[in-house]
Amino acid sequence: MGDGIATELDGIELGDKRLNDRSRRIIETLGADPDASCNAACDGWSDTLAAYRFFDNKSVQPEDILKPHLEATKRRMQEHSVVLIAQDTTELDYSDHPPTDARCLNKEDRLGLYDHTHLAIAPNGLSLGVVGVEYFDRDAEGLGQSKERSKLPIEEKESMRWLSGYRLACELSRDCPETQIVSLADREADLYDIFMEAEKQAKEHAQLADFIIRAKIKRSIPERDLEAGPNAYKKVRDQVSQSELRATQTIELPRTPKRAARQAKLEVRAIRVTVKPPHERSSLPTVTYNVVLVEEVGGPGDGTDVSWLLITSLPIDTLEAIQRVIDYYVARWTIEVFFRVFKTGCQVEEIQLETLPRLKNCLAFYKIIAWRIMYLTYLNRECPTLPCDAMFDDCEWKSVWRVVTKKELPERPPTLSAFMKLLTQLGGYNNRKTESPPGPQPVWVGIRRMTDLATAWIVFGPDAEKTCV
Ligand SMILES: [Mn+2]
Questions:
Q1: Residues 391, 4: contact at Cβ < 8 Å?
Q2: How far is the CA of 87 from the centre of ligand 1 (A)?
Q3: Confidence of residue 49 (pLDDT cuts 50, 70, 90)
Q4: Do 151 and 22 belong together in one domain?
Q5: Tens digits of per-residue pLDDT, 199-226?
């Protein structure tokens, strides 16, 4: 991707000009061939060794590598009136070739890292960049003790990452004061501490992030349920499911490992509730938030029926407002796609580096590369008429044009959408008129093949004389 991707590192400050230059060279090399190993992607041995030395350099930290990308992402965020910050965790399994200092995932013989990523997304699904990454792993000794772990204060627990993620979203809302920031998370983030934090932030700051979190815990309201027993309280979920029907709608559900893609007919309800603290922490104050219940009617009944209880600080007073909550939550899907591009497209679990600090430095580059594949995929849908040379070098688009169309070059660069058709055709995508624009997979395969063509173009193509001085 020529100088396109290296601009994500503009202004990188690693404390040494040679390191700064090296970081640009590495991202260009890896970015041109996302799923090759570091050895294969680097041009010959001297490059490979230099990249390894770079990853091993004690003064290089993953945050430094991501910092310029973060700044560029904030600039992209400021162009939007609403930005969603999705946070989620994925497993990186290095059991086959673990770094020497690797620790456990959920079992003693599974070595690797949990990768908790924060991704900025526009409400239309365009991913704007990675705004944070945290890794954690487990001590083999502590694996069987999840009961013990659950008694720890949140600062000492793995679940702290979700609270930090909400705080990060609040910081971003102060960095981008014209933009409404909404923190998004799935069921794992249904933590009482986050709702208390949101009320605390609201008292301290004029600027704070909103949130949408899918409920996991069966929380109660502070009102006795005498029919259910002497110590029972009424449940939030019952309150909302007994409230009036606000809307019905039909949505397209994307395919997951557990279900095929399908259309789902949904019933929507929403209320504002005051919620009791968890039983074991009954001295805490109550919190108040809005809930939106989305339930499928006439679903397959095989355990994949949609039943989302969404907890949110966003308004629910109009149908449009409720719809917005649902649409934003659906946009969370982008982070799942991001993880697929990162793991399957960039094959980051195949990386073989001997220590975790080296691995984490290398992963920082692949975060930016995976983001860019997503960005190109979505930009193709959202801005199809952009000239393609805004995103691709001459040697890239010209070589692909000649190879795929077998025609003379046009006078002007084709549009992004026309060019992406050619690029993804290289990636095995069938460009029939009826087909929707390509997903990220043909884009990453196409980019890999384009790199060879662009190299040949520079060496043998009509512009060769000018390029090879
Ligand atoms: Mn998750």
A1: yes
A2: 8
A3: low
A4: yes
A5: 999 999 889 999 999 999 999 999 999 9
**Cα(7) to centroid of ligand 1, in Å?**
31
CA 213 to ligand 1 center in whole angstroms: 11
Residues 57 and 96 in one domain: yes
Q: Under a CB-based contact definition with an 8 Å cutoff, are residues 405 and 12 in contact?
A: no
The tokens for 156 are 């000492």
Distance (Å) from CA 64 to ligand 1 centroid:
26
Residue bearing tokens 């649409």? 327
230 and 126 within one domain: no
Same domain assignment for residues 66 and 151? yes
pLDDT tens digits, one per residue of 320-340 = 999 999 999 989 999 999 999
Query: Cα(252)–Cα(258) distance, rounded to whole angstroms?
Result: 15
Domain span holding position 293: 214-321
**Residues 265 and 336 reside in one and the same domain:** no
Q: Is 314 helix (H, G, I), strand (E, B) or coil?
A: coil
Query: Ligand 1 centre and the CA of 365: distance in Å?
Result: 23
Nearest to 95 by CA among 82, 108, 76: 108
Report the separation in Å between the CA atom of 19 and the middle of ligand 1, taken as the mean of its atom positions: 35
**Residue 190 CA, ligand 1 centroid: distance in Å:** 11
**Cα(363) to centroid of ligand 1, in Å?**
20
What distance in angstroms lies between residue 465's CA and the mean position of ligand 1's atoms? 52
Q: pTM here?
A: 0.83
CA distances from 273 to 122, 131, 145, 223, 294 (A): 28, 32, 34, 11, 16
336 Cα: distance to centroid of ligand 1 (angstroms):
8
How many domains does one find in the chain?
Answer: 3
For residue 186, report the distance from its CA to the centre of ligand 1, in Å. 6
Summarised one tens digit per residue, pLDDT across range 429-467 is 776 666 677 888 888 888 878 877 877 787 777 876 554
Phi, psi of 395 (to 5 degrees): -60, -25
